[in-house]
Write a structure and sequence with these properties.
Helix content: 40-55%
Number of domains: 2
Number of helices: 8
Order of helices and strands: HEEEEHEHHEHEEEEEHHEEH
CATH topology of the largest domain: Glutaredoxin
CATH architecture of the largest domain: 3-Layer(aba) Sandwich
Structural class: alpha+beta
Number of strands: 13
Largest sheet: 5 strands, mixed
CATH class of the largest domain: Alpha Beta
Strand content: 15-25%
Shape: elongated
Distance between the termini: 34 Å
């Protein structure tokens, strides 16, 4: 049994390596090699689809005016929400660049069909700096309506945490580097401020963003299965349908195969263990009966 388990475990490990090998990730942010795993503990995203963000939370916008998140749901438009900070050395710029590139590919415009709200995770960032950051990305976006359709908010740490917790966005400040460790994701909210979808990474295909905004506008809440399908398929405007993304499908297929194989290994091990225990029990009973006789 032990040899059998070792063989199956080795096959599982080999399959894990095969599933991850040879698949470049040019569209994904790769953590620098010099960042220790300990530094990114408690960093990530816990999906909370359908969760209501705290609308009574107060911030200051890039103009220095005090606002509440409820101010952004008054006209019934879906909202794209991101959590970033102006001094972020790399990831935030990559994410914003990817988002703006995606927005350029939409026939919808921020300020008309939807809104964008960027919440700064650095409570010490001055609103003047947030204003400069806004101007940079609005200028890159190149659409005048975004001046009133994209807001950059700063606020107290307790208020930032309240919003981040409602989104399932886990981040932490590193004292040594003076930087915030966080992941990259875009949260698409319904017009009432509920989480409809989460788009991960730093590249967002325009068709995915358009579909997410359309669903959110109708108050639809996504599901983990929809997230998986969106990951494996992309919309081809020439064909007018969704087509498979081979690389992502291979990743998902490899992961599912590993999970199935691991489950089979565990079940086989449990069965063998029970058989062994049953045999030992029968053997003991036989010896006990022989002793009595």
């Amino acid at each position: 049994m032990q040899n059998k388990f070792s063989t199956l475990f080795g096959a599982c490990v080999a399959l894990c390596v095969f599933a991850g090998a040879g698949l470049p990730a040019a569209e994904e942010y790769v953590m620098p090699a010099n960042v220790a795993p300990k530094q990114i503990e408690n960093v990530g995203i816990d999906e909370k689809l359908g969760e209501q963000i705290p609308l009574n939370t107060k911030f200051r916008n890039e103009a220095g005016h005090y606002v509440e998140l409820s101010d952004y749901i008054e006209d019934g438009k879906p909202i794209i929400m991101t959590l970033n900070y102006s001094d972020c050395p790399m990831l935030c710029s990559l994410q914003m660049d990817g988002l703006v590139e995606s927005l350029k590919g939409l026939n919808w415009t921020a300020g008309k069909e939807f809104k964008i709200v960027t919440v700064g995770i650095n409570p010490y960032e001055p609103f003047a700096q947030a204003a400069l950051t806004k101007q940079k990305w609005v200028r890159e976006y190149g659409r005048e309506e975004a001046q009133r359709g994209w807001s950059f908010l700063i606020g107290k740490e307790e208020n930032i945490k309240k919003v981040a917790d409602s989104l399932g966005f886990r981040y932490r400040f590193d004292v040594l580097s003076k930087e915030y460790f966080h992941t990259a994701a875009v949260f698409v909210l319904t017009p009432t401020g509920k989480i409809s979808k989460v788009l991960y990474g730093v590249k967002y295909p325009p068709e995915h963003v358009k579909a997410a905004l359309g669903d959110a506008a109708g108050g639809k809440i996504g599901s983990p299965m929809e997230q998986l399908i969106m990951y494996c398929f992309r919309y081809d405007p020439e064909k007018g349908s969704y087509v498979m993304q081979a690389r992502n499908t291979m990743k998902v297929g490899g992961a599912l195969t590993v999970l199935i194989l691991f489950g089979w290994i565990v079940i086989s091990w449990i069965r063998d263990y029970r058989r062994t225990k049953q045999s030992e029990k029968i053997e003991k009973q036989g010896k006990a009966q022989a002793g009595v006789a």
